[in-house]
Amino acid sequence: MKVPVVLSVVHVVIDAAGVMTVDVDGVPRASEQGRTRGDLRSVIDEITSELGAPVRVEVREADGSTYVDVATPTESSGAAAAEPARAPSTPALAGAGFEPGEEVALAYVVVRQHADAEGNASLNLPPALLAATRGGLVLLGMSSRTVTPFEAPA
User: Fold this and answer.
1) Domain span at residue 65?
2) Within 13 Å, how many C-alpha atoms sit on residue 91's CB side?
3) Residue 3 covered by a domain
4) Do residues 113 and 121 lie in contact, with contact meaning Cβ atoms separated by under 8 Å?
5) Same domain, yes or no, for 103 and 69?
6) pTM of the predicted model as reported, rounded to 2 decimal places
7) What contacts 42, CB < 8 A, 6 or more positions away?
8) Of 6, 18, 68, 140, which one has the greatest count of Cβ atoms within 10 A?
9) What is the rounded average pLDDT of the residues 13-39?
10) Which of 44, 37, 41 is nearest to 63 (CA)?
11) What pLDDT, on the 0 to 100 scale, is given for residue 60?
C-alpha cells in the first residue's frame, strides 16, 4: 500500500447520546450523520476504502476526551482489490522549462523532485492536499529559478 505524504483527517464528534458527526478534511459526510458510536469501525472502513489510502482519525467524545489513530484500508476491499493498481494518466502537478536534472519545488516546499532529462517535472499529491490548495500553486526550479504557475483542477 502506498502511503500519501499528507494523510486525510477524519474528524468524529460523539455527543452524549452516542450519536456521531463525521467529516473528512472538514467536509461533512452527510451519509454518516446520525450514526452511533457502534458504527464507527464501519464508517472508517468505508472512508478508507473510498480513498484507497490510510487516514488519520480524530475522535472527540462528549466528555472532552480525544483519541487519535491511523486507519488503513482493508486489503480485501471489494472493488479496490479486484482492480489492479495503475498509474494515473496525467500527473497531479506538471511543469516544463526546467533545466535537465534540476530539483523542482512546489511553493511552500510541500514536495521536491528532480526534473527529468528533458527538463520536465511531475509531482503527485494526495487529493486532500490538492483540494486544500485550490487558490493556485507554483512549481519552482531551484537552480534556474523557473516558475511555472499551476491551478488545481476544480
Assistant:
1) 8-76
2) 10
3) no
4) yes
5) no
6) 0.48
7) none
8) 140
9) 86
10) 37
11) 92
